[in-house]
Write a structure and sequence with these properties.
Elements: H1 2-10, E1 14-17, E2 23-32, E3 35-45, E4 48-56
Antiparallel strand pairs: 1-2, 2-3, 3-4
């Protein structure tokens, strides 16, 4: 996860924060074309890493 956080940050993704101001360990956001994109990273579980990118024009929290 350390590598994923560093790589995401180097590519312009910012750690996502909750309403309480806490950061999620595997959730990042980036503005793309007027839309907020969410990058979620989970794992590794049994050697597998789950990566998901979702764009949401409604602006709701996704990960």
């Amino acid at each position: 996860m350390t590598h994923c956080r560093e790589a995401a940050g180097a590519d312009g993704w910012r750690p996502s924060t909750t309403a309480e101001g806490e950061t999620g360990s595997g959730c990042f956001t980036e503005s793309m074309g007027g839309t907020t994109a969410y990058l979620g990273v989970e794992g590794p579980d049994d050697g597998l890493l789950h990566v998901e990118i979702v764009a949401d024009r409604a602006g709701s929290q996704r990960c």
